[in-house]
Design brief:
Distance between the termini: 20 Å
Strand order of the largest sheet: 7-8-2-18
Radius of gyration: 33 Å
Shape: elongated
Number of helices: 14
Helix content: 40-55%
Low-confidence stretches: none
Strand content: 15-25%
Mean pLDDT: 84
Amino acid sequence: MLALSRWKVLAVVASLIFGVLFALPTFLPANVREALPGFMPRQTLNLGLDLQGGSHLLLEVDTQALRAERLTNVLEDVRTILRQEQIGFSELRVTDGAITVQITDPAQVNTAINTLRNSVGAPLAGVAGGRDITVSASGGRIRLAFVPEALNAEAAKAVDQSIEIIRRRVDELGTREPTIVRQGVNRIVVQAPGESDPERLKDVIGQTAKLTFQMVDESVTAAEAAAGRIPPGSELLPSEDQYAPAYVVRRRALVTGEMLTDAQQAFDQQTGQPEVSFRFNSQGARRFGDATTQNVGKRFAIVLDGKVISAPTIQGPIVGGNGRITGNFSVESANNLAILLRAGALPAPLNVEEQRTVGAELGADAVRAGSVSIVIGFVSILVFMVLAYGLLFGGISVIALLFNGVLILGIMSAFQATLTLPGIAGLILTLAMAVDANVLIYERMRDEMRSGRNALSAMDAGFSRAMSTIIDANVTTILAALIMFQFGSGPVRGFAWTLSIGVVTSVFTAVLVTQVLLAVWFRTTRPKALPIV
């Protein structure tokens, strides 16, 4: 065990170099970090919301609004399908969470039922009928309703999509290591360290950013529509356009924001006003080109979250897949809209349930308190180990402990893990637990020396016979940490992450580093007895 194998020495030296290289930038000023040679890492340890300050939001995904939108889409599908099949109908509406329609010709009821069953909705495994919508009839009235499994799956999917879209939007703001996790069934927790303006965060996160291009219905005026004369398949939308307070548009969208591949803030070359330029994917470019080719001379509305931004007239076919959105933009609002369009539209609106801001001063106080706690814990361990095992063996344990701390910081910096206040608690616990292995090894050495063994045999037995106990104790600890990381959130995960790293590095430093240092000492001095008996 005490043989100085080359791989052991190389492992200790390599880990020390790794730890120092990645931990050092955390303690250097920004100008010094920028001047470091190119081969050296420059990333620093990320501090969490509670240590750095920032914004905390608790958001709720509005699944009811999602359900209402799905019902509206299905209603328009039913209208289109029945018209295409030339089936007469009336009283098409949403009633009690379902869609009902009256077939005017009794002879066409069965045809309508079969057509709708095969055409409306999407396939869904594991349910009767194999689709996410059930179609039933009573007399000439047909009822279409979503199966519960479809609604639950849609809500769960909406939350997952919202988390990914929120993450992309927050990343666009330049926030480092945001925490975005699901809470319960339909809630999302967002923590953005360093983002001191929660209102801007809410503006970027909370806006649905659903962009659609819809034809303007010019068969009626906005005033006539406001009086109740809205044609079937159309809707009245408010406008931010300076030319009209509202527009009547066709419900069916020509192209949607899901087909965008890029959006950037730009300036109008003629007026110099801020605008948003965008580019469609191949499908969107084709559909947009077809729509503008077929509707030259007509107006189409650019609709964002139910409001018409502008409604230009199509002067000619637009087949390049590029376009511009103009309106009453400032540079900031145009840039925010570009961020939203690049990140994608939320599948459902988000409601802010809770909002908190942690000031940078409070975070700095927490860092100071945590640093003091670590120093106190380290000094306490140093005093105990020196008193219990002497200056040599206790000092080697303290050196291994310092090595452990450098490794933990280096690994967390290298992988850009986030250190939180509970993470500091995990770090302190790790330092306290790190010397457990040394205590087990040293006590075993004492027992072997008391039983009459020489110094070399006692040291060898101390490492070999204590190893199984060390492994058992740390495996159970890391399993508990993994469970906390898997099922916990926020502070619990921060604690589990630091503890998991600390357990691995503690075993490495307490066993291998200590073994190498003691082997060097033994080869140098050749003692007859160990100074811990």
